[in-house]
Amino acid sequence: MAENIIMPKLGMAMVEGTVIAWKKQTGEPVKKGEGIVDISSEKIEMEVEAPADGVLLSINVPPGGVVPYGTVLGAIGHPGELVAVASAPVAASGNAQAESAASLAIQKQQGPPTSIETAATPLSLQSRNSIKISPVARKMAEEEGVDYTLLIGTGPQGRITKEDVERAVLSRGHSQAEAAQEKSVSDATTASGQSTVDHNTAATASELQPVQTAERIPVTGMRRVIAERMHTSLQQSAQLTINMRADITELLQLKEKLSAEIEARHKLKLSVTDWIARAVVLALLGHKQMNSAFLEDRIERYEAVHLGIAVALEKGLVVPVIRHAEAKTLTELSHEIKSASTKARQNQLAPEEMKGSTFTITNLGGYGVDTFTPVLNPPETGILGIGAARDTPVYIGDEVQRRSLLPLSLTFDHRALDGAPAAAFLAEVRRYLEDPYSLLI
């Protein structure tokens, strides 16, 4: 009997996954352990390996399909072999393929098999009780006729908030208004016939032709999640960015002085990002307004610092989290940042390793960027952007000296704190960077 290809569960919080691309077509040979299909869940992308040798008998879920974990994505076997057709998602356990046999209807394939339709249960048919939604948001959704099972929650652990429902109602209103406007224009055009086009000498044939698109790229997987979260972040917070420059001349000198000893003792090289991370952590301990989250009707301030470090990948951006960064030394922090960044680039981060951050750092200095406007990672109150350090002439007393200045761009949620305390926090980060020995304590 054929072997099923199962949508795996990538972490405890995973509910569903997206099929990105199949690497084989039906009827093509497959070897056990060979990559057969790329999938994603939130910001995790991975390659699912073939469970057996044979040929790809069926593709149940096409590219772009979103299905619950445990769903049968396809089947591998020999031509003419029995193929199991899933009537519902199956359990994703260590022996999921064997467990699914009892709940599958068996069909006899005659000749070379073709793909079959997926029977995955859409999210809207899952138990409504399993949806995380606040009581206020649930009541509002019911009153407004909004199907909240289709909404993306922006609250803690993906909880649907009142603001999520309000946005859905507003979006529906816009859509109805746009549809009415389009109908009005269409009716007017029909009534006037082709005379408008015939008498408009400014409109040439080439102007009336549709624009040719060179390439159409579906927004799926990681790109879709990033797009949704960044758009939501800007819609549901009052973001403001302030800038400062820190003189890191002495920091770079100390870094160079300690380089050989730290490499010999700890087997690592300290980067400027490591020093900045340490400065941010110490500053957050003294400015807890910034180490907080704005959650519906309250602001939660945290004692622990769970530091997010943005890592750019070929297909998008991920933010691994360094937990309890306040309890780590500079070298310990450096080791964890490097380890998390390596796992991110190798696509080995678990979903749990990218959740729960209380503040985030993003560095574009390596691309030559000076200052920029980072977007908050909700529900965090702040995110610090790092630019490229530049050698700049600076007056020190009456003398002009060559100093290395580092741009710092802090975006904060004005709902959670005002400009003065945000500026005080950024000034504290600068103070630590300009007194690098304090970062070694």
From TrEMBL:
Enzyme class, first EC level, given as a word: transferase
Enzyme Commission no: 2.3.1.-
Keyword Glycoprotein recorded: no
Boundaries of every Peripheral subunit-binding (PSBD) domain copy: 132-169
Pfam families, per the entry: 2-oxoacid_dh, Biotin_lipoyl, E3_binding
UniProt domain Lipoyl-binding: residue ranges: 2-77
Cellular component terms per the entry's GO annotation: cytoplasm
Alphabetic keyword roster: Acyltransferase, Lipoyl, Transferase
Entry cofactors: (R)-lipoate
SUPFAM superfamilies: CoA-dependent acyltransferases, Peripheral subunit-binding domain of 2-oxo acid dehydrogenase complex, Single hybrid motif
Keyword Flavoprotein: no
Residue ranges of the region described as Disordered: 170-196
PANTHER family: DIHYDROLIPOAMIDE ACETYLTRANSFERASE COMPONENT OF PYRUVATE DEHYDROGENASE COMPLEX (PTHR43178), LIPOAMIDE ACYLTRANSFERASE COMPONENT OF BRANCHED-CHAIN ALPHA-KETO ACID DEHYDROGENASE COMPLEX, MITOCHONDRIAL (PTHR43178:SF5)
Name of this chain's protein: Dihydrolipoamide acetyltransferase component of pyruvate dehydrogenase complex
Native source species: Brevibacillus reuszeri
Organism placement in taxonomy: Bacteria, Bacillati, Bacillota, Bacilli, Bacillales
